[in-house]
Write a structure and sequence with these properties.
Helices cover 72% and strands 0% of the residues. It contains eleven helices and no strands.
């Protein structure tokens, strides 16, 4: 059995410090409130972290619906080997976004309210519902891998038979909430520099998510190759790079 190397290196030290500060920040955040660690207020309820966490984080996880759509809807089976890692990355990405929202929300214990307290005129209501539903879809798509691993043949066949349905739902939900994040800025034009304001923001947000999602799949494939010695199909990855550049 290989021994665990616990030697403290430079980067391990850096990550250890980040973890310690993160734990301290978490304790302060949940004991003294969001304002104590962010300097946010009712006048400025959103900070830079929202842009990084929600807007960027959700877009970075867009590789899941993009790759599954390419393979199952457009029937480009050439890229099928990328489906599972892309779905796993997207699933983990959305779980981390939901976890981060527990820190971002002033009253995280009310995160379930949109389920029963509907506000169809709110963009965030639509985003919240689509994120919840798409996370459930990703769980269903990834369950195929789990059932196959543990040889649960019957469940595997059931989920495999509805994978197209799940993919279509995933594309619909992702398209809705990726574009709706852009719609947030349509209702607050004074928050944007005039150069960046356009009615096409929802479309641009969606298009950017597709490009970024494909790029993350490429990066993830390379890192998997470096870490686990997984084979690297340069031709397929090069196709994704070209498509990302085009977008």
């Amino acid at each position: 059995m290989k021994k665990l190397n616990l030697k403290l290196t430079f980067w391990r030290g850096v990550f250890l410090l980040i973890t310690i500060f993160g734990i301290l920040g978490t304790i302060i955040r949940f004991t003294k409130g969001l304002g104590a660690v962010t300097n946010l207020s009712d006048d400025f309820p959103w900070g830079l972290w929202i842009g990084f966490d929600v807007l960027c984080g959700v877009a970075l996880a867009a590789g899941g619906f993009t790759i599954t759509a390419i393979v199952y809807i457009f029937n480009l089976k050439k890229y099928e080997e990328l489906v599972r890692p892309a779905v796993l990355t997207a699933f983990l990405g959305y779980l981390f976004v939901i976890l981060a929202l527990l820190f971002d929300l002033g009253r995280p214990w009310n995160i379930w309210h949109p389920i029963i307290m509907w506000n169809p005129h709110s963009v965030m209501f639509e985003v919240g519902w689509c994120v919840m539903l798409y996370t459930a879809v990703l769980a269903g798509e990834f369950s195929i891998v789990v059932f196959e691993k543990f040889r649960l043949t019957r469940l595997y066949k059931i989920m495999k038979s509805i994978v197209i349905f799940l993919v279509i739902l995933g594309v619909v939900f992702s398209t809705l909430h990726q574009s709706s994040l852009g719609s947030l800025f349509l209702i607050v034009p004074e928050k944007l520099y005039p150069l960046w304001y356009t009615p096409l923001l929802p479309f641009f947000f969606f298009l950017t998510a597709v490009g970024v999602g494909l790029s993350i799949v490429v990066v993830e494939s390379y890192l998997s190759h470096r870490a686990f010695g997984k084979g690297l199909n340069i031709e397929i990855l090069f196709d994704l790079v070209k498509f990302s550049i085009f977008i």
